[in-house]
Amino acid sequence: MFWEPASAKGLTGNMKQTRRDFVLAAGGFAAASLLGGAGPIPQRRTDFNAEQTEDLNRISAWLNSLTTLTAGFVQTSPQGRTAQGTFYLARPGRLRFEYRPPSPLLIVATGGNFYVRNSRLNTVDRYSAADTPLGLLLADNIDLKRNPAVLGIERQANALVLHARSATNRMSENITVTFATSTTAPQIQLRQWVVKDLQGDPTIVMLTQVQTGAALPDSLFAMPMKLPPMRGGAN
């Protein structure tokens, strides 16, 4: 279960877990945690060989070609809790993580900010794009080979795996992102990302039924609002 029922004693811990799950799951999404919120990533870039440069250019070109993307997602926390939902991306600048019940979360990026609504607590928290790595997918122009957060890339069977670091883990890798490839077509697809916390525990997000290019309504990316207060008292 993604969200454990809150109690008077456990409410603060659950709120902290909500923020942690947001940072790990959504924050780890963007291929390289490139815009982390704990200070700038050192500007030393990795030297890539010709094959690595080709693969990074291929991923960059695919990301730059995206207009919209929709997919289902399954998120697994280090404690084994799972959550599912639907992910929407409209480049540049907008995305949405729509969690299924019993999770109370909705995450929307729009206007340079990320909003996390918790319907159970009736709260909406705002984060600057600079405080999360999600900005990578939202940027207008992506060039992974020149990004100092990208540490490496490797070819696996029908996949390219990108290795990166976040600003909170600046000297070593803590994010991997897997892109599915095909020997019969030039197209690639985002399939999975894994982000590790400071203790090395991983949160895994897998995408299913990825589709690109579909028209998405602007209403999906509207800033989420709190529910209005109920009038009157309980019976």
Give the tally of β-strands.
Answer: 11
Evaluate the radius of gyration. 18 Å
Q: End-to-end distance, in Å?
A: 31 Å
The CATH level-2 architecture is identified as Clam
Biggest pleated sheet: 11 strands, antiparallel
Average pLDDT rating: 77
Fraction of residues in β-strands: 25-35%
Number of domains: 1
Commentary on this structure:
- The chain has 235 residues and is of the alpha+beta class.
- The protein has a single domain (14-34, 55-210), classed as outer membrane lipoprotein receptor (LolB), chain A.
- The protein has three helices and eleven strands.
- The protein has helices at residues 11-26, 50-65, 135-138; strands at residues 68-76, 82-90, 94-99, 105-110, 113-118, 123-128, 150-156, 159-164, 175-180, 189-196, 202-212.
- An eleven-stranded antiparallel sheet has the order 6-5-4-3-2-1-11-10-9-8-7, covered by helices on one side.
- The chain is globular.
Provide keyphrases for this structure.
235 residues; alpha+beta; outer membrane lipoprotein receptor (LolB), chain A; disordered N terminus
Question: TL;DR?
Answer:
With 235 residues, the protein is an alpha+beta fold.
Show the helix and strand layout.
Elements: H1 11-26, H2 50-65, E1 68-76, E2 82-90, E3 94-99, E4 105-110, E5 113-118, E6 123-128, H3 135-138, E7 150-156, E8 159-164, E9 175-180, E10 189-196, E11 202-212
Antiparallel strand pairs: 1-2, 1-11, 2-3, 3-4, 4-5, 5-6, 7-8, 8-9, 9-10, 10-11
